[in-house]
Amino acid sequence: TTAGDGRSDSGTVYRVRPDGSAFSTLHVFSFGDRAHPSAGVLLAPDGFLYGTTVGDGRSGYGTVYRVRPDGTAFSTLHAFSDGDSAFLVAAVILAPDGFLYGTTVSDGLSGYGTVFRVRPDGSAFSTLHAFSGGDGARPEAGVIMALDGSLFGTTRGSSEGGLVDPLGTVYRLVFAPGDRNHDGLTDCGDRTMIKQALGKRTGQPGFNSLADTNGDGVINVRDLAFVARQLPAGTVCP
What we know:
Elements: E1 12-15, E2 24-28, E3 42-43, E4 49-53, E5 63-67, E6 75-79, E7 93-94, E8 100-104, E9 114-118, E10 126-130, E11 144-145, E12 151-155, E13 158-160, E14 163-165, E15 169-173, H1 188-196, H2 221-230
Helix pairs in contact: 1-2
């Protein structure tokens, strides 16, 4: 990506071969369709490139977008507003639960940035954490997901009394132990996800690291038993 230039000086998505040949511009951002991508793109298994923009959008607070590698089918998945988050400078990741995860530098409840997620089709957007300053401020980098499903990231600073400390933080965001599909609930859906991957080992098609509850590299009855213990009392799963 480029942050500027293009016909509208709002940035572009491009591609080029490793030897420098076959350069082409896949998408030129306009002031109206989302602008100034600061981070690179993610090539997902569905064949789309996923990226973020710093600003513009309908309200000027940044977007998550996708486009095919041939430049077709560009679409904005989520346009941020002053109320949900603002200004994206890091790339998103695609996690085993099927969600895109990312960060915003500013806004949120206190203006110190957020961690968010959204599905690749643009649905189910949610803010997972809004930084308060005391727990970190201005997450300019994205997040990574560990084998246990926790998210790790860094912030540019922290704050006390409204002043930003430039020393920064390293943070961890943990989901409920039984919520393996990260939908906010511990229910039969988590058990079903594990059943669908039973017998799979690391590196095999169908292996899902989120279903491997103990991180031993194989999804088996131990993982099923772990989630069963986390289910609310009285839950009966098919």
